[in-house]
Design a protein that fits this description.
By secondary structure, the chain is an all-beta fold. The chain has three domains: 86 residues, Jelly Rolls (Sandwich); 122 residues, no CATH class; 112 residues, Galactose-binding domain-like (Jelly Rolls). Helices cover 0% and strands 48% of the residues. Strands 8, 9, 10, 11, 12 and 13 form a six-stranded antiparallel β-sheet that branches. A hairpin with an 8-residue loop joins strand 10 and strand 11. It is elongated.
Amino acid sequence: MTGTSDAAIRLITGLTPNQTYYLTGFARTSAASDVVAIGVSDYGGTELTATTSSTDWDRVALSFVPTGTQANIFCRKQSGTHAAFCDDIQLTATKPPVPILSIPGKLSVTQAQYIPPSNGAPGLYLLPEWYYPNPSNVCISRWAFYVAEWPWGPWTKLDIGNDGPDAKEKQWSDCAGRTKGYYNPTVIAKWIGPFNSTNKQRDIWLLNSGDYFSPTYYKLYRQRMVFTYPSTTTNLISNGSFESGVRPWYAGPTSVVVTNNAQNGTSAGRTTRDGFVQTITGLANGATYQLSGFIKVSNAAEEIRIGVKDYGGAEISDPTSSTTYKQSIINFTPTNGRATVYCWKWNGTNFAYCDDLQLTKL
């Protein structure tokens, strides 16, 4: 589209009256003085538009509630004489996810890596990303990292340096020789260090490539990064890793803490025919909580389980007869502000173990 009011229009039928719909798309202009819009009209209400003057692709979005079964959606040049463009326009009845990142320049995001719960640290997804702040200068790149408790977010940005628009990024540059790009940082699962419950940190080792334009293109590098967990990701179970002995767990007559068979650290809970119980108070009614833990038996004919009860709903538990540690995960929603969590073995005469029990608010 070039001239003012030039537009691409499409009639959408089969809409449900009085239901919210979400219109999203990408648009850009050839000149920052021009304006382009996506919008909706003829739906029973006032015409709505979402505009941009960006010369790079910009995501725009709006929502509307039709009173009938149809609407016109459009991409329209609002002002200016230069060319404008639209792409990937979508209309959905469910709210689309908010973009994690909105950064000018060239951007590449590597695969999110799941860091499992351990030693009081909740399970988190770590998302590395790198980009060029100046698209025409490939010898300067930046890294940033985001964490979330679910793969779809919401994501929290980690503070890993003093660069970037918010001084939370790490910048790599070697403009003179154009040799250091440091591309695609990727977390290697086997290189995730133990969690320090005192400072809420653990070491993360990254594999990345670099040396752009060098004789040996894209050499691989390994780099250590200290990962500090956000303060919101707190384990609500006290001594879930049994590193401090039994307290404050209630332990049955056959249940003790041992310094062998730990899943992580040096200690684990061991039981024969009962288990460990702890009551958690101060929970938010209506919120979702996740209980997780590692459990195993020494005889595959028996089973041990983790579970939750007394939270205002039906008791939930997850058993295993695995002779190697298996992680069990349970989600529940309290209605009375409290919950009782446990690791328990109901029968048998052989040892069973539990370790790294965690309760986090999602």
